[in-house]
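Quick one:
INPUT:
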């Protein structure tokens, strides 16, 4: 019997547990197929802070999501044993120690045989997750949806920060370079060649203007076709969306994706061998309406709906 979210007919949605989608809480990932885990961290950010409050806000806004995806037919809780295992106890005053703690927490999830679905938190958290994933699976294919490529060498002299994640992952051999897709990139930069270096590594970069006013299903199917047969990690930065849809983030950039585009893109990845996901950079203090966290919660649910095991085909 799989874990089911607490129904709004059994307990009002404004009450009950504060877990993701009001799932059962668990102390460990033992016996789970999917473990939701929070990383309440913002000490890797470079502009606006507040992502330490992201996991709690995403959980709160997930209370309205019902278990059956009427649009796609997915019923993930009928197939997967899911629970919320709480937050990583990060070190508020030490980024390096926090990354070590994240790595240890994700290692325990993988050792239990579960897929980690991580609620962020700033994007620095993806680096220790990729280190753990690559140690378990070998170099990974990556789908990175973001306004920024996050391939800086250093930030203020530091090698580990939210804008250096994918350079470190490339340098450390955690990724299969020509199986890396970065979608939604835009904004201003430090030079005309900012995106040329990752392209030189083999990364596939899709800038936001290339996909304005378009359905993203064809692009998603292209990515899916190229990544079939590989272990895939998906990292979704909420600032990939236009600030009109997700203002509550630390480094907003105009001209981003719409929410329907985000849903189309995620849904097109159904059938990939996804070994983990994260959703990062939700900063609730910059969106008092809660809409950014609401979008994030729903996109996390969409990611859950495409995991291996949800579909029989």
């Amino acid at each position: 019997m799989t874990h089911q979210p607490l129904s709004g007919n059994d307990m009002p949605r404004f009450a009950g547990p504060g877990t993701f989608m009001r799932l059962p809480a668990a102390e460990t990932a033992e016996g789970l197929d999917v473990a939701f885990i929070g990383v309440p961290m913002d000490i890797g950010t470079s502009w606006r802070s507040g992502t330490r409050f992201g996991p709690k806000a995403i959980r709160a806004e997930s209370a309205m999501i019902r278990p059956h995806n009427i649009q796609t037919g997915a019923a993930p809780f009928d197939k997967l044993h899911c629970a919320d295992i709480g937050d990583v106890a990060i070190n508020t005053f030490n980024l390096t120690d926090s990354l070590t703690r994240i790595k240890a927490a994700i290692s325990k999830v993988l050792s239990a045989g579960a897929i980690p679905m991580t609620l962020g938190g700033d994007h620095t958290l993806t680096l220790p997750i990729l280190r753990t994933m690559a140690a378990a699976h070998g170099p990974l294919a990556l789908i990175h949806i973001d306004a920024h490529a996050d391939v800086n060498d250093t930030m203020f002299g530091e090698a580990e920060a939210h804008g250096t994640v994918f350079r470190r992952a490339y340098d450390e051999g955690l990724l299969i370079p020509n199986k890396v897709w970065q979608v939604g990139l835009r904004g201003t930069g430090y030079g005309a060649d900012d995106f040329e270096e990752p392209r030189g590594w083999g990364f596939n970069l899709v800038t936001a203007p290339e996909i304005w006013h378009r359905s993203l299903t064809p692009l998603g199917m292209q990515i899916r076709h190229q990544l079939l047969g590989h272990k895939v990690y998906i990292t979704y930065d909420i600032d990939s969306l236009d600030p009109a849809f997700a203002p509550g983030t630390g480094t907003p950039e105009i001209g981003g994706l719409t929410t329907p585009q985000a849903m189309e893109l995620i849904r097109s990845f159904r059938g990939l061998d996804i070994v983990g996901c994260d959703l990062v950079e939700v900063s609730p203090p910059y969106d008092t309406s809660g809409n950014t966290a609401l979008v994030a919660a729903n996109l996390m649910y969409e990611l859950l709906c495409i995991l291996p095991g949800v579909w029989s085909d």
